Amino acid sequence: MTDVLVAVQGGLGRITLNRPRAINALTHGMVRTIADVLDRWEHDERIRAVLIEGAGDRGLCAGGDIRAIYDDARSGGTGSLDFWAEEYRLNARIHRYPKPYVAFMDGLVMGGGVGISAHGALRVVTERSRIAMPEVGIGFVPDVGGTYLLSRAPGELGTHAALTTTQLTGADVIHCGLADHFVPSHRLDALAEALGRSGRDGDGRDGDGRAGEHPADVVAAFAEPAPASDLAAQAGWIDACYGASTVEEILARLGEQGQEARSAAKEIGSKSPTALKVTLRALRLAARLPTLEAALDQEFRVSSACLHSPDLAEGIRAQIIDKDRNPHWTPQRLADVGDDLVADFFAPPAGPELGLGRTEGGTHR
């Protein structure tokens, strides 16, 4: 079975992630295929817009190939570094893609799934969308440009999402700036067909998606007002608590608030202490970085350090391999994660740097 299906329908290039039993989790080969297709379609005059979607009804993409990362983390391998380098380059490519890049963020969208969708020009969510960056739960740190996106959400909503790993609704991510339009899931097929029609020459007038119409106008014609964001309604206590400068102080403030805040504190308390502190620092630094590429460079440094940290293998073991949900973090307490240890995650890696921040060009934004 082909893991990535590629098709051209009218003026639309369709990329379908085709691992539905794994919720379309990304492999290294899939990343390379998507990158090759985008390169080819950039100069194909037939292609007016690109659509990325997931096969099945469970979600666009549940993230990366965690088991392969686990094997690397245990054995001291470097395959994950090669994967991340190509994945992050793809994220930057999507952000700068010169043709409209449409992402159907339907169902579950996590980790790497966010990277191949939320950097696009036209990001569509549905009533089934559940978006999350769950990295701290496995001893990792948000990557694929996640620190860039979350650090630019209103107030401290992105910090809350990163430290708790909570799943956000479509309405939530629109509010946070990670998506643009709400379209009911039962209309996605019709929207894709309309996008294909919009790229054709001629005078066809066959409903939504008229020939020659810009893809952005087609998506907007299908969009409906998003439901109210539950996350936005909680901004008061979230901003008050997560504005603190340390994880310890965030937890102390959460403990002084209502039940929702105390539940958030409980969630944070179950995550890797090291990953929590590194994530908070990564978010604060990313908020001051000028481009997505600069944030991806920083994330590559952090990811490289995580690969050699004991918490990544242990977190994946507890959540994915043995599924006992009982990770033994090293260190086990926030108090034992010193500033020097956190700083080590941001030091230049032993191997090559990613270097995207030195080569960025124009952007569709």
UniProtKB/TrEMBL annotation:
<protein>
    <recommendedName>
        <fullName>3-hydroxyisobutyryl-CoA hydrolase</fullName>
        <ecNumber>3.1.2.4</ecNumber>
    </recommendedName>
</protein>
<dbReference type="GO" id="GO:0005829">
    <property type="term" value="C:cytosol"/>
</dbReference>
<dbReference type="InterPro" id="IPR032259">
    <property type="entry name" value="HIBYL-CoA-H"/>
</dbReference>
<dbReference type="Pfam" id="PF16113">
    <property type="entry name" value="ECH_2"/>
</dbReference>
<dbReference type="GO" id="GO:0006574">
    <property type="term" value="P:L-valine catabolic process"/>
</dbReference>
<dbReference type="GO" id="GO:0016829">
    <property type="term" value="F:lyase activity"/>
</dbReference>
<dbReference type="GO" id="GO:0003860">
    <property type="term" value="F:3-hydroxyisobutyryl-CoA hydrolase activity"/>
</dbReference>
<keyword id="KW-0456">Lyase</keyword>
<dbReference type="InterPro" id="IPR045004">
    <property type="entry name" value="ECH_dom"/>
</dbReference>
<dbReference type="InterPro" id="IPR029045">
    <property type="entry name" value="ClpP/crotonase-like_dom_sf"/>
</dbReference>
<feature type="domain" description="Enoyl-CoA hydratase/isomerase">
    <location>
        <begin position="13"/>
        <end position="346"/>
    </location>
</feature>
<keyword id="KW-0378">Hydrolase</keyword>
